[in-house]
Amino acid sequence: MNIPGTESIIFKDTNANRRLLLAFAHPDDEAFGPAGTIIHYARQGVAVHYVCATRGEAGSVDPHLLEGYASIGELRTEEMKCAAGPLELAGLHLLNYRDSGMENTPDNQHPASLFQAPLEEVAERITRLIRQIRPQVVCTFDPTGGYFHPDHIKMHHATRLAFHAAGQLDHFAHQLEQGLAVYRPQKLYYTTFSRWFLKLMVKVLPLFGQDPAALGRNKDINLRRMADVEQRATTRINISPYFAARKEAAQCYVSQLPAIRRRFPDFLSNWLYRYDLYSRVIPEFEGGRLEDDLFDGVSGQDGPEKI
């Protein structure tokens, strides 16, 4: 199923009645993000596909971990393949753009970066994958990308565009001439998270001498800015039963595993991260009780094209 600019790795049979596609930016976005959701649905027989835009080339890595690897991107790609096992992914799809780094960094200007790529081009690659995989449910970042990473924001816009384009005859019509059919997924979700914990950390961290506006290995995570974003959760997935598998997937990313997560005792981590939260965008959520299933109301559709 490989197409120009894209590499697909299929791990198991993808001809399932229900299919979920998650489109994010970097290796580890899936394991440090909605890992529990991925495992939850994979164990229900859903074919879960991860579309990853870059290989994380701009990330920082301890030099000794690069032994045996030609680059940071190669190391992080192998970590992502490792995580695919405990996540029980059906397929991994690499768009092969370069990591753009954080906001206002030199990596933003690299000509091969996702940040510099034309939005229509990125959307075209995701549209092709949607038409091939035919997922009923698509999930990506919210408009802020969670913490304002330019690659996250780019994937938000490209995936939203692809969601609509995949079902329209006049969008990327050359794909139809090549044998694909129009296909529109039934539901679109954005990842989100509770802001109360962030707001608490903004108040607590200064007591320990830490600046909440300059966190992370490179001091480029601004918790204050993140805490000010209002994002409504419409859907909550209980992922507490999958703690061991989530932990196994996260531990594949030795080069990126946050030190604070290494220090958290398991019982506290499982309590803090016992739910994955989402905002349902299509169809629009009209209020009422939170959903507890991304596939709620989904009707069956024809299976995927041959992968």
Strand content: 15-25%
Q: Supply the number of helical segments.
A: 10
Strand order, largest beta sheet: 1-4-3-2-5-6-8-7
CATH 4th-level superfamily: LmbE-like
- Which overall shape is indicated by the principal axes computed on the Cα atoms? globular
Helix content: 25-40%
Q: Which residues form runs of ≥5 with pLDDT under 50?
A: none
In N-to-C order, the SSE pattern is: EEHEHEHEHHEHHEHHHE
What is the level 1 CATH name? Alpha Beta
Average pLDDT works out at 90
Distance between the termini: 5 Å
Radius of gyration: 19 Å
CATH topology: Rossmann fold
Word description of this protein:
The chain is an alpha/beta fold and 307 residues long. The chain has a single domain (7-194, 233-282), classed as LmbE-like (Rossmann fold). 31% of the residues lie in helices and 15% in strands. The chain contains ten helices and eight strands. It has an eight-stranded mixed beta sheet with strand order 1-4-3-2-5-6-8-7, with helices on both faces. Helix 2 (72-87) links the parallel strand 3 and strand 4 (91-97). Helix 2 (72-87) packs antiparallel against helix 8 and helix 3 crosses helix 4. The longest helix is centred in the first third of the chain and has 16 residues, at 72-87. It is globular and about 60 Å long. The relative contact order is 0.18. The model has no long low-confidence stretch (mean pLDDT 90).
Compose a concise summary of this entry:
The chain has helices at residues 35-42, 72-87, 119-133, 150-165, 173-177, 195-204, 223-227, 243-251, 259-263, 266-272, and strands at residues 7-10, 19-24, 47-54, 91-97, 137-140, 187-192, 235-238, 275-282. It is α/β, with parallel strands linked by helices and 307 residues long. Strand 2, helix 1 and strand 3 (47-54) form a beta-alpha-beta unit.
